[in-house]
Amino acid sequence: MRIINIHEAKTHLSRLVENAANGEVFVIAKAGKPLVKVVPLDAGGVQQIRRVGFLKGRISVPDDFDSMDLQDVARFSRPR
Questions:
Q1: Short name of one Pfam family for this protein (predicted)?
Q2: Alpha carbon distances (Å) from 66 to 55, 59, 61, 62, 71
Q3: pLDDT tens per residue, range 14-56
Q4: Residue 20's domain spans which residues?
Q5: Looking at beta carbons, which pairs linking 33-36 to residues 24 or more positions away fall under 8 Å?
Q6: Surface-to-core class of residue 26, CB atoms within 10 Å of its CB (0-12 exposed, 13-18 middle, 19+ buried)
């Protein structure tokens, strides 16, 4: 994997982006310390927006959810 210093990356950004889009993976470093890894994006790697209700049917919420452990909450929330 190629390591490119940040100055070179700024100078040749267009070429580096094109190379990355074509599959070349490289690391950008500052003072010899690796900072970021540049990899090409693929359509499958982009995360989809999460929707409300995506766990419907997989979990259940008890009917007494809002009042569960009220005694414990009250005990720990009292000033000492």
A1: PhdYeFM_antitox
A2: 20, 16, 10, 9, 12
A3: 999 999 999 899 999 999 999 999 998 875 555 667 778 878 8
A4: 1-40+48-75
A5: 34/3, 35/6
A6: middle
For 16, other C-beta atoms within 10 Å of its C-beta total: 19
59 found inside a domain: yes
With respect to residue 80, please indicate whether it lies within any of the assigned structural domains: no
Nearest-5° Cα angle at 26, 21 to 27: 135
Are the CB atoms for 31 and 7 separated by under 8 Å? no
Looking at the domain assignment, is residue 24 inside a domain?
yes
Q: What is the pLDDT of residues 58-75, one digit of tens each?
A: 888 888 888 777 777 777
* Number of domains present in the structure of the chain: 1
Kind and range of the H or E run holding 25: none
Give the global pTM.
Answer: 0.52
